[in-house]
Amino acid sequence: MTRAGLSLLVGLAACSSSTRSPDVTPAAAIAIAHVTVIDVTGGPPRSDATVVVRGNRIASIASGDSAIVPGDARVVEGRGKYLIPGLWDMHVHAAWRETAEPFAELFVANGITGIREMWGDLGVIRDWRSHVADRDGARPRIYAAGNLVDGPNPVWPNSNRAADAREARELVRSLRRDGADFIKVYSRLPRDAYFAIAEEAKSLGIPFAGHVTIAVTAAEASDAGQRSIEHLTGVVLGCSSLEDEIVRQVATVIASRGWVAASGLSRGLGGLIDSTYDEARCRSLAERFRRNETWQVPTLTVRYNITHLEDPRLERDPRLRYIPQFVRQRWADRSATIESGPAASAEGQQALQRREVAVTGLLFRAGVPILAGTDVSNPYCLPGFSLHDELARLVDAGLTPLGALQAATLNPARFLHATDSLGTVEVGKLADLVLLDADPLADIHNTSRIAGVIVNGRFIDSAERERLLNDAAGASASMMRRPPPGRVPRRRPAL
Ligand SMILES: [Zn+2]
Fold first, then answer.
1. What separation in Å is there between the alpha carbon of 494 and the centre of ligand 1?
2. pLDDT tens digits, residue range 86-142?
3. How far is the CA of 230 from the centre of ligand 1 (A)?
């Protein structure tokens, strides 16, 4: 077992430990009666089931009147409702001092019972894990990288910098020592530093995942063992008949004019990459991903948002009222939220974004494993809410509703080597569940019709959900006039 897998399981063990903090009342049993269970394995939905949760585990599932409801159970009427596993957002940036608490509330209220933190503060991540271990129902589970690892001229000024193989190996060791579950790699890593990370991570048994640096191809990243590729970085380029030539040109610019110029060149090539799309190449790349089990996290939501920042619907979204003001300000300040430059053509980027949607469908049909992720913290990626948007976008891209649901439930469990505890509605598994008012397999938008959430065995009913959302709206409004200057993060959000 990998060390990161072990770390997650230690977290899970802590959740089920009987030595909880004394102020947490042990949950009485909860019985969701006469509900339709969608266990997401692909079998037929199980109607008229009664699901009993005791502590933080699913204790029993029985059909019809044969179900025995324990005397101490809180009975929740499930007739006409649907029960699915808790949802995971597999690409977020939430574990920062200023966002951890408000974002966690929004995750929970929206049925997100687990997150993969792609760049957070390891101190905040440790606090977060202790909330989960305390089973207070306030936080989703967390699987986390620490600070990301970029090259000597990083995209974000305060990321870790690895200029060469030696520095790269040292960073992998120190991040692992400091408690990172995986290493997040980024866009401007030099080739030697990138491959050193791959080797060091492999020898230490810690996964690495993230962007495909502009210095390697997606196929090389897949062969090097990168566990997941975010935002399809390098993937659509890998489907272009001009890939070899473009990669050579980018390498020449890195050597002659540096990383910033090379990044600008890359961003400016969206239209060309789209127009030289070659489906046969794309299929062969997909086959490589399938063979190497290279997971894809297309993050269609953020890719749409940052390529369409002028779309007035983004700023008119009524759900913005739940978002802290300092976050909204950051989003409204377009120049601070995107990398812009003379070389980046908006039309080209939009063409590339549309192609990414089509490629996501192709990857799914080819059997490439896919995870749902939103890139919370980036423009108009709303904690909790946007995961439901992402599921709908995945269906629009060509996933079946079941495939989209799996991308946020069963697939994260597989990705985390935790299918014994997570990912389906089954006896013995951790009680992370979402109760819906309508069938998500009939219409994926129904995942947002939430009647209740069970987080690590704690039931959040509709009244408590309402309270969480009202708290968030109240906190946002109270920061309307006087944004707390000390708490405004200086860094720009990270893709
Ligand atoms: Zn990100």
1. 5
2. 999 999 999 999 999 999 999 999 999 999 999 999 999 999 999 999 888 889 999
3. 8
Residue in 172, 288, 171 with CA at minimum distance from that of residue 234: 288
**pLDDT tens digits for 337-370?**
455 444 468 899 999 999 999 999 999 999 999 9
Q: How far is the CA of 437 from the centre of ligand 1 (A)?
A: 31
What residue ranges define each of the domains in the chain, with the CATH number in brackets? 3-85+424-461 (2.30.40.10), 87-414 (3.20.20.140)
Rounded to the nearest whole angstrom, what is the distance from the C-alpha of residue 88 to the centroid of ligand 1?
A: 15
pLDDT tens figures, 126-183: 999 999 998 888 899 999 998 999 999 999 999 999 999 999 999 999 999 999 999 9
Residue 422 Cα distances to 53, 159, 256, 402, 406, angstroms: 14, 32, 49, 17, 12
Residue 89, amino acid: D
Query: Alpha-carbon distance 420 to 370, whole Å?
Result: 20
For residue 78, the cross-strand partners are none
Beta pairing partners, 89: 115
Two tokens at 287? Answer: 């086959």
Query: From ligand 1's centre to the CA of 184, what distance in Å?
Result: 10
Task: Compute the distance from residue 116 Cα to the ligand 1 centre, in Å.
Answer: 10
Distance (angstroms) between ligand 1 centre and the Cα of 56 equals 30
Total number of residues shown for the chain:
495
Whether the Cβ atoms of residue 396 and residue 403 lie closer than 8 Å to each other: no
CB 213 within 8 A of CB 149: no
Task: For residue 369, give Cα distances in angstroms to 133, 238, 245, 360.
Answer: 29, 18, 29, 10
The Å distance, Cα 26 to ligand 1 centre, comes to: 36
d(CA 193, CA 154): 13
